[in-house]
């Protein structure tokens, strides 16, 4: 059959009359792709939409190597899919991160910035209008059945679950506060039913059963489906109501609780002894710079906490294995995209910090992000800069839905043929409010943890820049300082005037980074994807190296700087400092106002 065109092959197979095709397009399409599309078509119409399964863990790290301890994730996802190694969250806290994930918008555009009211949680999600306007609703409108089980948002409780019910799901079974993080006494709420507290039962075993049941229903529906599965592992075990952060002393934090069958594993595991593990010299600014070196009691506690995280993740690993077995048994594996990620990262002893998140360090903002599905490279590792803001546009693209104008992100190139697609270099990271130590020795709150930051990665540059609400600054060159131990911003101990980046003096680089952050901290829509175009409307600057030309020095010296007027626990505009950026033209500088 060598040399035959697709039409000839189909005639030979006796199916040409049964399968609609276009000679102008299909002669150019590989046979296996064409036949696959047609075999899954519906009633001879257009090819059926692909299924999507989205697995979202809670507080899972990538920098402490948690994936190395998950053999089924390795087998089904890492070996058969692509790991996006430069994937970041844009807010290192679960509820704001999840709202951004499901809306494709930064927290400064959702104004859901906390885990509880008045600045966050499920009530804030509802009051902002997102219950009628987020991913599952959009997918249903596009013809998908939608399912979900596990944690959705904080402050989604046994008291407010029906005021209103979450919209957009064909079937759902949510974890609810105040038992969301109680591994052995979780509360689940199915569809419109009343909540049930599963006393003495492990949340992961319950979740596995619920996820499998929903997947069976989704497959039986014979419609394209979206299934979200959100295990609480490896989050801390929490007993008590965390809805009032000011009453945190009444809440008991402890280590994650693994399933009985996993509690003996990894007895020798310890937090990786990387250079930023409990360093001799404090790093960071604000309250982080004041943290004392951890004593042996804390080190031992943190190693145990780390082991408990790994053990708790074994239940998630079993869940992953079961999902893939079901897909394969039902002939749906090749027609399904499977995503695996976390709502934020985590630190344990890095930078002298006890267990927690909420900071802008790599440990907290860089998370696992793995995709397997049709056309996705097996065993691939992508260096593309991607974020949770990009997830909704990516799912839209897979589902064949036109992108929304209010998306702040850009669809992620999943297929191997797209891996060389040029993308932006930047990540906008923002945070408001508190940080908290977790674990059985934890519970301490640190206020004024509000900051804006910029992560920027390109050829020969790898930088982190931040401005805190007390107007302290951080600048790390991760090319020479991958563990972020030397803050080289002027005025700090590790600053060195002789240091250059991309051949430019630090002052020139900082001017550009600060202006880029000024745009990103208030950006909307396409400006968030192409912030340099806001600064340089002529289009002659597309990246940091372009902007470093000395010709632009006078322009950047005139630019407003990122600063706060005061520290606040939420997004309050009059505390946020300058909002507008100057734009450069060949004829000089002019103001452009945008909101």
TrEMBL record:
The modification 3-oxoalanine (Cys) is found at residue 94. The conversion to 3-oxoalanine (also known as C-formylglycine, FGly), of a serine or cysteine residue in prokaryotes and of a cysteine residue in eukaryotes, is critical for catalytic activity. Keywords: Glycoprotein, Hydrolase, Signal. GO terms for biological process: phenol-containing compound metabolic process. The keyword Signal applies. Its EC number is 3.1.6.1. It holds the Pfam family Sulfatase. It catalyses: an aryl sulfate + H2O = a phenol + sulfate + H(+). The keyword Iron does not apply. Belongs to the sulfatase family. This is Arylsulfatase. The lineage of its organism: Eukaryota, Fungi, Dikarya, Ascomycota, Pezizomycotina.
């Amino acid at each position: 059959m060598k040399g035959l065109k697709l039409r000839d092959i189909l005639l030979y197979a006796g199916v040409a009359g049964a399968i609609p095709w276009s000679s102008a397009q299909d002669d150019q399409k590989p046979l296996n792709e064409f036949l696959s599309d047609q075999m899954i078509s519906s009633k001879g119409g257009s090819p059926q939409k692909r299924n999507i399964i989205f697995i979202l863990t809670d507080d899972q790290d990538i920098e402490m190597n948690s994936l190395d301890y998950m053999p089924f994730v390795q087998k089904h996802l890492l070996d058969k899919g692509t790991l996006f190694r430069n994937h970041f969250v844009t807010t290192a806290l679960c509820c704001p991160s999840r709202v951004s994930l499901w809306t494709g918008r930064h927290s400064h555009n959702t104004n859901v910035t906390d885990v509880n009211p008045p600045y966050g949680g499920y009530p804030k999600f509802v009051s902002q209008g997102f219950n009628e306007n987020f991913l599952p609703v959009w997918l249903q409108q596009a013809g998908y059945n939608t399912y979900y089980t596990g944690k959705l948002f904080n402050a989604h409780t046994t008291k407010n679950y029906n005021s209103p019910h979450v919209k957009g799901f064909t079937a759902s079974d949510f974890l609810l506060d105040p038992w969301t993080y109680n591994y052995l006494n979780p509360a689940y709420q199915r569809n419109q039913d009343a909540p049930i507290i599963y006393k003495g039962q492990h949340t992961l075993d319950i979740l596995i059963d619920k996820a499998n049941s929903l997947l069976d229903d989704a497959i039986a529906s014979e419609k394209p489906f979206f299934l979200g599965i959100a295990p609480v592992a490896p989050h801390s075990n929490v007993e008590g109501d965390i809805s009032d952060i000011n009453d945190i002393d009444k809440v008991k934090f402890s280590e994650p609780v693994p399933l009985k069958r996993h509690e003996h594993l990894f007895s020798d595991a310890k937090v990786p002894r990387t250079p930023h593990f409990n360093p001799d010299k404090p790093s960071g600014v604000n309250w982080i710079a004041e943290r004392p070196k951890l004593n042996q009691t804390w080190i031992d506690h943190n190693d145990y906490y780390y082991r408990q995280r790994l053990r708790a993740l074994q239940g998630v690993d079993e869940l992953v294995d079961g999902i893939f077995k079901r897909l394969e048994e039902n002939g749906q594996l090749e027609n399904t995209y499977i995503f695996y990620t976390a709502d934020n990262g985590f630190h344990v002893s890095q930078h002298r910090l006890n267990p927690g998140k909420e900071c802008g360090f790599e440990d907290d903002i860089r998370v696992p992000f793995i995709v397997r599905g049709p056309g996705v490279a097996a065993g691939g590792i992508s260096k593309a800069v991607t974020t949770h803001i990009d997830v909704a546009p990516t799912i839209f693209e897979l589902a064949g839905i036109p992108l929304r104008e209010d998306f702040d992100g850009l669809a992620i190139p999943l297929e191997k043929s797209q891996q060389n697609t040029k993308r932006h270099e930047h990540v906008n990271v923002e945070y408001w409010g508190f940080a908290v130590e977790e674990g059985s020795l934890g519970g301490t709150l640190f206020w004024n943890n509000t900051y804006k930051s910029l992560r920027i990665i390109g050829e020969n540059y790898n930088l982190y820049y931040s401005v805190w609400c007390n107007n302290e600054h951080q600048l790390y060159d991760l090319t020479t300082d991958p563990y972020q131990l030397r803050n080289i911003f002027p005025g700090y101990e590790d600053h060195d005037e002789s240091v250059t980046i991309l051949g430019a003096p630090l002052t020139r680089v900082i001017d550009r980074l600060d202006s880029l952050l000024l745009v990103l901290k208030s950006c909307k829509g396409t400006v968030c994807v192409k912030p340099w175009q806001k600064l340089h409307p002529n289009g002659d600057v597309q990246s940091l190296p372009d902007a470093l030309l000395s010709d632009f020095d006078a322009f950047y010296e005139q630019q407003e700087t990122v600063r706060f007027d005061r520290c606040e626990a939420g997004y309050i505009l009059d505390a946020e400092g300058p909002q507008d950026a100057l734009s450069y033209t060949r004829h000089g500088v002019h103001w452009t106002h945008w909101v």
